[in-house]
Write a structure and sequence with these properties.
Elements lengths: L2 E3 L12 E8 L3 H5 L4 E4 L3 E4 L3 H4 L6 H26 L6 E3 L1 H10 L12 H8 L3 E9 L5 H11 L7 E10 L5 E10 L6 H12 L4 E3 L1
Helix pairs in contact: 3-6, 3-7
């Protein structure tokens, strides 16, 4: 039986950072994972906490737009990482591309404002997948290029995030059962882009959670 490593983790690590990590894996994870063929990664619900003096430079709705951009950046970064693993033949599942995922969510009226009104199994049904990855991301400065550039233009600074917390969940589609949860909080020099952080952390986290065919 061949074992392929599948990551449930994300973001933010460096050689000079301090991190706290917690991982939960359902005892029946492998049993459910064997039935999964397609997984969707949803935009992460992102919260950016800026300094009070920086908030004064924000027009109504600008912070919310940055948070949405950051959430989609996390989604895209994770999808890209899994595509690379798939090309190397190290994945037993396929991942729905973010464009298709987000278009389906929009078609059914699922937005960042009403997202919490849907259960995991309802979201999986809308997307037509066997499992979904979703979660939250909290930071004191955005990592995505678009959001970071917008912040730099507004308040006069950019660069690496100093603090961030990622909370990621994997749910089975049929029962909406939580199969795994990965929570990581980090502080320090965390790199310069979402993609870089995802690549660093997923290489480490892929040793923790596995899919078995």
């Amino acid at each position: 039986m061949k074992t392929h490593l599948f990551t449930l983790a994300l973001i933010l690590f460096s050689a000079y950072s301090f991190a706290q990590t917690s991982l939960y894996e359902n005892p029946k994870f492998e049993e459910y994972a064997k039935t999964h063929e397609t997984i969707a990664i949803l935009p992460f619900n992102t919260s950016i906490t800026l300094r009070p003096k920086d908030m004064k430079s924000m027009a109504p709705g600008q912070l919310e737009k940055m948070e949405q951009d950051e959430g989609i950046s996390v989604q895209n970064g994770m999808y890209s990482w899994f595509l690379k693993r798939d090309k190397k033949g190290t994945s037993t599942v396929t991942f729905q591309d973010p464009i298709t995922c987000n278009a389906k969510l929009k078609k059914f009226g699922v937005t960042s404002e009403n997202f919490e009104e849907y259960t995991p199994d309802e979201l999986a049904d809308i997307l037509g997948v066997d499992a979904i990855i979703m979660g939250t991301f909290e930071t004191n400065k955005p990592m995505s290029e678009a959001a970071n550039l917008a912040l730099n233009l507004l308040v006069g600074f950019g660069g690496a995030t100093n603090k961030a917390v990622l909370n990621m969940n994997l749910y089975d589609a049929d029962e909406g059962l939580l199969l795994a949860n990965y929570n990581k909080s980090v502080s320090g020099a965390l790199g310069s882009s979402t993609d870089q952080l995802i690549n660093i952390l997923m290489k480490k986290a892929s040793r923790r959670i596995s899919y078995t065919d």
